[in-house]
Design goal:
The complex is a heterotrimer of chains A (281), B (275) and C (359). With 281 residues, chain A is mainly α. Chain A has helices spanning 2-27, 44-51, 53-85, 89-104, 107-121, 127-151, 155-163, 168-197, 200-205, 213-221, 227-254, 258-261, 264-275. Chain A has a single domain (53-280), classed as MetI-like (MetI-like fold, Orthogonal Bundle), CATH 1.10.3720.10.
Chain lengths: 281, 275, 359
């Protein structure tokens, strides 16, 4: 009895969380433009989606920015983390605190402050400014993912490699980077996801006609429900699911302990919650 | 070989894109150059205290508090159930609770439109059972609902992660000493879960307080929150001074809540400590 | 010793396919210090938790003063537990921890305050009321846990390896204190340990367990001197356990190829048996003075005595003696008849790490 009530409660919570998403996806296949009436299955909205040049260019912008931003952030952040380890405690603390600012600040504050910066140094709002903004908010996540791996780093292999005649850079590539790889990949994937997902910061740091998907959704949704958005949502949802599965698989195969595997997705979520304290990241 | 210089590119980046913007917020919040010269002023900060804005700030607090409270009331039992040892498939359930957070935040908010509109599913259902149409959107209810929907997992997870860590022998010790179920909860479990509760409250309250998207979409722009005012200053009005002053207010609140989390919250959940 | 206070009747407890408690019958007398002793994983904690009400037996009855209490929840049983890992309430001070039970029972604050003081004194922690429990050492936390249980004046105190996490010296001190406390408060103690020395030192009654069963119940002296079977002998103290012995007839047993006089009867004739001889009961004599002869292979000084290994025809004997011997010498081995313990032959299940610290 008590167990049943518990199950029921969790079911209701899940219903609350999923009903809107499911409705959203179901109606993306509705033949009619009306959301309320079901007029049969159709792929109209998906067809329209792929002929809508605005949406297509937004799609391009979104993934181009996400790709460049996460690559740059990964390189910048990984080296930053390695350098930070060699800093004096005080400097390290200061850099770390500043690094946390974009993570903790509400996105709207990060967004408007960057907007003011671009005006101040005379960068026109558009693709470049948006890209710079994305690199800025992604890099801290890379640093946060790589730092713990650096703490656990076994430096003796690096020294042993040099002792055996390896040049410092070669030794670095062969000994240190492999140990950091899990953190680096996590940081990269995190950056990519956050960048694809971002609305608020992009909203304030772009201009001209450069828009990402979230912004298209926002401007369409302001005018009410639009089945094309439903179609975009469904696609994004599926994409994110697949990405998550890949991330999880990667972790599954990289970890040996079967017992731990169950929790990897979970832990990842928890970690991300730590950072995703604000809307829309 | 000193590897310290590896950090140099980032240090430069950090200075330009994190430190300078922060400084700009302070700069615009406390200066004015109406007369062509940049002068120190408290006008923008004072402007916050005009009745018009005070009302908005009050409303933002009020709605975020309600949303946080609802999240807490809904989320605490859920976290407890998930943390109970006899609950099967708890990992699957947890993943399911976290999963929606991976969906674009805008889309999640948007998804409620199809349900809440006058022509939406809920209203069609109400009409079909003869209850007639109800105005579900464009009001406080819709905005609070949107906040609860978006931030509920942020409440459940920190509380869950503290609850599962509670040593079950401590609970048994309380029973052993004569406490019944209710007493065990009130005297042991709830006090011990406080760090998670503090983290959960901060993690729902702060984003709710600073949102402009939820209010914009679900109230159709009828309800103005702090976030909407800031947005307007930067996209329409161009009053960066006021916008910066309000941003500063949000930052101060974040700062306070961070101190709070570091003191009472669960460090492993809050972002204060490093992983 | 008083009357029976707790009785376990034919208790079974299974976790899935695994039988943790395999038919236990046991009674505990009022006021005694009873110890459940056995290797890690043998079901001691489970037995204690069944008594405390934290675990329901699948079969069998738990009686308290003759009344079945299977369905009485833990918080209503007149017992208190000192948990394996203390289980102090981390958000409460030392004083609040100790006061927890009486507060629940709505006893007036004045009395509680006095009681807290008194019981903290009993456990040698006077003046620690306002300390944060996390600032205490392991031994001090243990004392708080004991005070927190004793203040409720339980009829029975259950202690699950309370000294397991302490270092050796502290352990010895706490053993003495526990013994004193038991005398002073005069309530029944049910104690769990995997440390045979601790069990023998503290207890009035020792219950030796293995694989969810009780192997022997007795006083420490009985258990030590008259082990029921080879496992008990093996587990309790060091022993020579000679498996290939043969009971020739009543009062005559063939050990290591030589006939010895003994006091045991009733095994029949020419029956394979196990024989246990304590190392301190083996007497070494000149080779021509005994039928059983052996060569000294190793001599180690152990502080109080020498440990001497003597290679007999089929068995290597461990001998404790206050006199040293010379490696390589041939000696005679004798044992007094009453020091030879004959028991039914059974395959010995030696636990892999019999003294492993429990997790
Ligand atoms: N809740 C449980 N679920 C499954 N197995 C258990 C549980 N509790 C105890 N066991 C198993 O029962 C056996 C006895 O455990 P326990 O009573 O704790 O042993 P001891 O205290 O003597 O070391 C162990 O093998 C243990 O793994
Ligand atoms: Mg145990």
């Amino acid at each position: 009895m008590k167990k049943l009530l518990k199950k029921l409660y969790i079911f209701l919570i899940l219903l609350f969380l999923y009903a809107p998403i499911i409705v959203l996806i179901v109606y993306s296949f509705n033949a009619s433009k009306s959301r309320a009436v079901w007029q049969g299955f159709s792929l109209t909205w998906y067809q329209q989606l792929f002929t809508d040049s605005k949406i297509l260019s937004a799609l391009e912008t979104t993934f181009l920015i996400a790709l460049i931003a996460s690559v740059v952030a990964t390189v910048l952040g990984t080296f930053a983390a390695m350098g930070m380890m060699k800093m004096k405690k005080k400097t390290f603390e200061t850099v770390r605190t500043i690094t946390y600012i974009p993570v903790l600040n509400p996105d709207i504050v990060t967004g408007v402050s960057l907007m003011m910066l671009f005006a101040f140094i005379g960068i026109e709002l558009g693709f470049v400014s948006m890209l710079l903004a994305h690199i800025t908010f992604c890099t801290p996540y890379v640093i946060i993912s790589v730092l713990p791996k650096l703490y656990q780093l076994d430096m003796s292999v690096y020294e042993a490699a040099q002792d055996l005649g390896a040049k410092p850079f070669y030794a670095l590539r062969k000994t240190i980077i492999p140990q950091l790889m899990p953190g680096i990949v996590t940081g990269f994937l995190l950056s990519f996801t956050l960048s694809v997902d971002d609305f608020v910061i992009s909203y304030f740091t772009t201009g001209g006609h450069v828009e990402n998907l979230s912004m298209i959704v926002f401007s369409m949704a302001r005018k009410g429900v639009n089945p094309k958005i439903n179609a975009v949502s469904a696609l994004l949802f599926v994409t994110v699911m697949i990405l998550l599965l890949i991330v999880n698989k990667r972790e599954l195969s990289s970890k040996k302990h079967a017992a731990k595997n169950k929790d990897t997705l979970l832990n990842r979520e928890k970690q991300i919650i730590k950072y995703r304290r604000n809307e829309g990241k | 070989m000193s590897k310290r210089r590896f950090a140099f590119p980032y240090l430069i980046w950090m200075t330009i894109f994190i430190v300078v913007p922060l400084f700009l917020i302070f700069f615009y919040a406390f200066t004015d150059n109406a007369s062509g010269k940049t002068l120190f002023t408290l006008e923008h900060v004072k402007a916050i205290f005009q009745p018009l804005y005070l009302k908005v700030i009050g409303r933002s607090f009020y709605m975020s508090l309600i949303a946080t409270l609802v999240c807490f009331v809904m989320g605490y039992p859920a976290a407890m159930i998930l943390a109970s040892k006899d609950f099967s498939q708890k990992n699957t359930m947890l993943i399911l609770i976290v999963l929606p957070m991976w969906m674009n935040f805008l889309l999640r908010t948007y998804s409620w439109l199809s349900l809440l509109e006058n022509e939406g599913l809920i209203n069609r259902f109400l009409v079909s059972i003869g209850l007639g149409q109800v105005q579900l959107m464009y009001n406080n209810f819709a905005v609070i609902l949107g906040m609860v929907y978006n931030f509920l997992p942020f409440m459940i997870l920190p509380i869950y992660s503290v609850l599962v860590k509670i040593d079950k022998s401590v609970v048994e010790a309380a029973k052993d000493l004569g406490a019944n179920g209710a007493r065990v909860f009130l005297r042991i479990i709830f006090p011990l879960s406080m760090p998670g509760v503090v983290s959960g409250i901060t993690m729902t309250f702060m984003p709710a307080l600073s949102t402009f998207v939820i209010s914009r979409l679900l109230s159709g722009g009828k309800i103005t929150l702090i976030g909407n005012i800031i947005e307007q200053q930067f996209t329409i009005t161009g009053d960066w001074g006021l916008g910066s002053a309000l941003s500063l207010l949000l930052m101060v609140l974040i700062f306070i809540s961070m101190i709070f989390i570091n003191k009472y919250g669960d460090e492993s959940v809050g972002a204060g400590g490093l992983l | 010793m008083g009357k029976k206070i707790i009785e376990l009747k034919n208790i079974y407890k299974r976790f899935g396919d695994f039988t943790a408690i395999d038919g236990i019958n046991l009674y505990i007398n009022e006021g005694e210090f009873l110890t459940l002793l056995g290797p890690s994983g043998c079901g001691k904690t489970t037995t204690l938790r069944i008594i405390g009400g934290f675990e329901q037996p699948d079969e069998g009855d738990v009686l308290f003063e003759g009344v079945r209490i299977n369905d009485v929840p833990a918080h209503k049983r007149p017992l208190n537990t000192v948990f394996q890992k203390y289980a102090l309430f981390p958000h409460l001070t030392v004083g609040e921890n100790v006061a927890f039970g009486p507060t629940i029972r709505k006893i007036s604050p004045d009395i509680i305050q006095k009681d807290v003081k008194k019981y903290l004194e009993i456990v040698n922690l006077e003046g620690y009321e306002d300390r944060d429990v996390s600032t205490l050492s392991g031994g001090q936390q243990q004392r708080v846990a004991i005070a927190r249980a004793l203040i409720n004046k339980p009829r029975v105190l259950l202690l699950d390896e309370p000294l397991g996490a302490l270092d050796l010296k502290l352990r010895k001190d706490m053993q003495d204190e526990l013994k004193t406390m038991h005398k002073d408060v005069g309530i029944t103690f049910v104690y769990v340990t995997h440390d045979q020395e601790e069990a023998l030192t503290l207890s009035d009654t020792v219950v030796v367990m293995n694989n969810g069963r009780i192997l022997q119940i007795g006083t420490p002296v009985d258990i030590y001197n008259e082990p029921n079977n080879a496992f008990v002998a093996y587990f309790i103290g060091e022993s020579n356990i000679i498996h290939n012995s043969i009971m020739v007839k009543d009062k005559l047993v063939n050990i290591d190829g030589v006939d010895f006089n003994c006091v045991d009867t009733g095994f029949g004739q020419n029956t394979p048996v196990d024989v246990v001889v304590r190392p301190e009961d083996v007497v070494l004599v000149p080779a021509d003075k005994a039928d059983l002869k052996g060569i000294v292979t190793l001599v180690t000084f152990k502080g109080v005595h020498y440990e001497i290994w003597v290679e007999g025809p089929t068995f290597e004997w461990k001998v404790h003696s206050t006199l040293p011997q010379t490696v390589g010498d041939e000696l005679g081995i004798t044992v007094d008849p009453y020091n030879i313990h004959v028991m039914k032959h059974e395959p010995l299940e030696i636990p892999s790490e019999e003294t492993a610290v429990e997790v």
